[in-house]
């Protein structure tokens, strides 16, 4: 019933444009553990009023089946600032339609009255003890995209088998229920609640438990620049600084207010490198700020840059910031917990494609480190399991600039990560240390961990399948590569098939998934490289790392060795020319 999407379809029918209609209606968006992520537009392959109604009807029925008290507890729904003029879709509109679906079935809905960072939704699920949460966002995807992200009652993103169950329920509930389109009905409903004021107060109270140096924060002369990259982060990072008694960061004016067009950047993704930070560098130079904090548009990720003595800016990789935050959060914990026995209940987590630096710190300091599959859905769920067993999960991170610094949010959170990074930098400044110098000190103490990650773009699923099939049948059927150029392969773990050469029974310990590709190669020189497909973008990603024991300080030699390994990986395993792959460009 949306006049804009309806008109698009009618126009295509009038033109007899079968090709475009096939694209719009050929296949339904797949509901996975990341929920939905697609372009806004007409048809069942896109995010629009109808597909949101259908998805929510399926989700509602699935929740009714799983929770006898759903009508007592309810769900939370948040949204970012995305909007798409030509199809009339927007995150706010989709959130209201989703709320209407639940309310029509007598389910209480806590719908945020304004834009909110993604981490506020899992926080609200936990804080208000709700059955589930929905966040309407496409995070840092291109401007035409939107998404529908789902959290379970434990405050973590859903994992299997919930995705399959919800997907099936969507298939069974495709016809819109009566009044499904009329979102105005919710405004007069007693089942509609606005958690905005409560959550804003409680969240900032909870993150203050991670504030350990209030006096230093009050006095520091260190200046920060913050950019929300046309997303939701500005107001919330300002409030976080206030909660920690830090002077507010300078906001990049051109990127401060939400704008669904993302006019100043090619991609609204701080992970893409210096291009996104051009305006931040200019403002920092003007105001004499040493450190830049950049959130992605839904404020669940954080990038950090620091001005070096040479005048150059260093943008920290996700692994480098993970090393710094891991060191910092453990140091703060240690200084406040004199009981040496307590360390046996302390945990940190990171995903299998992230740096192993936390493992090195854990080995030396005596706490536990665990590795999970890629994605915060795995770290959030594992953290909750551990916390339910009375363990303290201090920190979890992923190399894709995602950090969980505060146990009140079981997902990545760019707001708390930004203010904790600012406190760490302020503390280090009192010791005349920069973040870069402290990073070197961490590597000196726990061993250098040099990482390099990138990706190739490939829009053809057949080519991707072929590339991975080739790796599994490299020297004849069912044989993996024994070497990559001059680098000897010493171990292989394939989490698509469940094979692991290092296990006595050759079966992988981590869960496997046939629906995504992921192979990890270990090399005789101590290098590790993982190749995997992305769940939300047409990319084949790779992650490589060379770990040296403490005391090996020839960093340049390590970097050279890793560069050579990566070049060999690209040439022999990706074969970009043969497979027509497009390299990542700055």
From TrEMBL:
GO terms for cellular component: cytoplasm; nucleus
GO molecular function, one term: magnesium ion binding
Signal sequence range: none
Any Gene Ontology biological process: glucose metabolic process
Biological source species: Aptenodytes patagonicus
Keyword Acetylation listed: no
Domain Alpha-D-phosphohexomutase alpha/beta/alpha: 29-175, 201-307, 346-446
Cofactor (UniProt): Mg(2+)
Subcellular location: Cytoplasm
Protein name: Phosphoglucomutase-2
Keyword terms of this UniProt record: Carbohydrate metabolism, Cytoplasm, Glucose metabolism, Isomerase, Magnesium, Metal-binding, Phosphoprotein
Protein family (similarity comment): Belongs to the phosphohexose mutase family.
Gene3D superfamilies: Alpha-D-Glucose-1,6-Bisphosphate, subunit A, domain 3, Alpha-D-phosphohexomutase, C-terminal domain
Stored SUPFAM superfamilies: Phosphoglucomutase, C-terminal domain, Phosphoglucomutase, first 3 domains
Major subcellular location class: cytoplasm
């Amino acid at each position: 019933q949306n006049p804009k999407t309806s008109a698009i379809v009618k126009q295509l029918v009038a033109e007899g444009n079968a090709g475009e209609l096939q694209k719009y209606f050929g296949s339904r968006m797949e509901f996975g553990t990341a929920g939905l992520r697609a372009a806004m537009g007409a048809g069942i392959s896109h995010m629009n009023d109808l597909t949101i109604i259908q998805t929510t009807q399926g989700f509602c029925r699935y929740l009714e089946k799983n929770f006898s008290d759903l009508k007592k507890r309810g769900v939370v729904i948040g949204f970012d600032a995305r909007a798409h003029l030509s199809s009339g879709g927007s995150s706010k509109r989709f959130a209201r339609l989703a709320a209407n679906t639940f309310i029509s079935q007598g389910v209480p809905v806590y719908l945020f009255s304004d834009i909110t960072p993604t981490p506020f939704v899992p926080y609200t699920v936990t804080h208000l003890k709700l059955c589930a949460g929905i966040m309407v966002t496409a995070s840092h995807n291109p401007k035409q995209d939107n998404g529908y992200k789902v959290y379970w009652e434990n405050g973590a993103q859903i994992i299997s088998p919930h995705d399959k169950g919800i997907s099936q329920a969507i298939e069974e509930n495709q016809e819109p229920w009566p009044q499904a389109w009329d979102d105005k009905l919710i405004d007069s409903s007693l089942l509609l609640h606005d958690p905005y004021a409560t959550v804003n107060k409680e969240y900032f109270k909870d993150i203050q438990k991670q504030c350990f140096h209030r006096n230093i924060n009050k006095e520091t002369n260190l200046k920060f620049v913050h950019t929300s990259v046309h997303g939701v982060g500005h107001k919330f990072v300002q409030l976080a600084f206030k909660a920690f008694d830090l002077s507010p960061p300078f906001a990049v004016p051109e990127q401060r207010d939400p704008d669904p067009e993302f006019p100043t950047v090619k991609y609204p993704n701080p992970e893409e490198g210096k291009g996104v930070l051009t305006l931040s560098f200019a403002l920092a130079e003007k105001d004499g700020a040493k450190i830049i904090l950049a959130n992605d548009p839904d404020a669940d990720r954080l990038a950090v840059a620091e001005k070096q003595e040479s005048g150059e800016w260093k943008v920290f990789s996700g692994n480098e910031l993970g090393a710094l935050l891991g060191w910092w959060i453990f140091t703060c914990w240690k200084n406040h917990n004199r009981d040496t026995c307590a360390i046996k209940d302390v945990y940190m987590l990171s995903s299998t494609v992230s740096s192993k630096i936390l493992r090195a710190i854990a080995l030396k300091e005596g706490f536990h480190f665990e590795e999970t599959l890629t994605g915060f859905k795995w770290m959030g769920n594992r953290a909750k399991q551990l916390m339910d067993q009375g363990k303290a999960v201090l920190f979890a991170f992923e190399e894709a600039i995602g950090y969980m610094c505060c146990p009140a949010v079981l997902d990545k959170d760019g707001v708390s990560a930004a203010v904790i990074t600012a406190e760490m930098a302020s503390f280090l400044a009192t010791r005349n240390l920069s973040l870069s110098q402290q990073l070197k000190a961490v590597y000196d103490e726990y061993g250098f961990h040099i990482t390099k990650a990138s990706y190739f773009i490939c829009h053809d699923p057949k080519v991707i399948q072929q590339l991975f099939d080739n790796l599994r049948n490299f020297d004849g059927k069912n044989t993996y590569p024994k070497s990559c150029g001059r680098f000897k392969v010493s171990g292989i773990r394939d989490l698509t098939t469940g094979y692991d050469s290092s296990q006595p029974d050759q079966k992988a310990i981590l869960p496997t998934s046939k629906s995504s590709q992921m192979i990890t190669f270990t090399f005789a020189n101590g290098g590790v490289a993982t190749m995997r497909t992305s769940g939300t973008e047409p990319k084949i990603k790779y992650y490589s790392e060379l770990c040296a024991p403490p005391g090996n300080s020839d960093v340049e030699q390590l970097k050279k060795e890793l560069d050579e390994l990566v070049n060999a990986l690209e040439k022999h395993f990706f074969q970009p020319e043969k497979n027509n792959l497009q390299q990542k460009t700055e």
